[in-house]
């Protein structure tokens, strides 16, 4: 079995369950594979499982004229090729509402993991701009933010990291 492809913007896909160990017959390359992406693809045709190799090379997005990440939910970067790589060659993370992909230094950040306050409190200073934005948007005090942000709780955190300077970014949604 060949090594799993590496995704620039989704380096922890296997560990996070975004790519899972599951025997499938990939509908794109028509090969029997030991790994599958079961997340969504924005396409007309419904597709249940795609192998990671067909995501990485863009053939699945091309076949279904689809994308994994909604381009309208991505922060802006100046290089259209980076957006294309993100939306057509990167498996998406799972969110309750609409996923949002954050950027920094004119490039998309890598999705690191699902988090609550407990997992990110040591990054409080690093995340201060995003924390202040979120608190303002939801009308939360610092103590409410810390109390409500719980991994797999009512307010879910999504931690990103800049590929160029290691700055962390945070997005949240609520169920």
What does this protein structure show overall?
With 175 residues, the protein is of the alpha+beta class. It folds into 2 domains: 1-94, no CATH class; 96-175, no CATH class. The protein has helices at residues 52-56, 59-64, 80-89, 117-120, 128-138, 142-148, and strands at 19-25, 32-37, 103-104, 107-108, 110-115, 155-161, 168-174. It is globular. It starts with 18 loop residues before the first strand and ends with a strand. The mean pLDDT is 95.
Low-confidence stretches: none
Overall pLDDT metric: 95
Principal-axes geometry comes out as globular
Structural class, from secondary structure content? alpha+beta
Family: Belongs to the UPF0167 family.
InterPro entries: UPF0167 (IPR005363)
Pfam families: UPF0167
Organism: Cellulophaga tyrosinoxydans
Topology overview:
Elements: E1 19-25, E2 32-37, H1 52-56, H2 59-64, H3 80-89, E3 103-104, E4 107-108, E5 110-115, H4 117-120, H5 128-138, H6 142-148, E6 155-161, E7 168-174
Antiparallel strand pairs: 1-2, 3-4, 5-6, 6-7
Organism: Cellulophaga tyrosinoxydans
Family: Belongs to the UPF0167 family.
Pfam family, one: UPF0167
Describe the structure using short key phrases.
175 residues; two-stranded antiparallel ribbon; three-stranded antiparallel β-sheet; alpha+beta; 7 strands
């Amino acid at each position: 079995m060949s090594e799993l492809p590496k995704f620039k913007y989704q380096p922890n896909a296997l560990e996070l369950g975004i790519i899972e160990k599951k025997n499938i017959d990939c509908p794109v390359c028509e090969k029997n594979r030991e790994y599958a992406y079961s997340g969504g693809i924005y396409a007309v045709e419904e597709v249940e499982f795609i192998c990671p190799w067909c995501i990485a090379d863009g053939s699945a997005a091309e076949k279904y004229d689809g994308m994994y990440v909604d381009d309208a939910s991505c922060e802006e970067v100046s290089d259209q090729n980076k957006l294309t790589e993100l939306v057509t060659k990167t498996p998406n993370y799972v969110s309750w509402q609409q996923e949002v992909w954050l950027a920094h230094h004119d490039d998309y950040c890598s999705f690191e993991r699902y988090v609550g306050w407990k997992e990110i409190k040591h990054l409080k200073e690093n995340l201060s701009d995003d924390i202040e934005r979120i608190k303002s948007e939801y009308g939360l005090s610092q103590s409410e933010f810390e109390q409500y942000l719980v991994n797999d709780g009512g307010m879910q955190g999504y931690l990103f990291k800049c590929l160029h300077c290691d700055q962390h970014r945070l997005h949240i949604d609520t169920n």
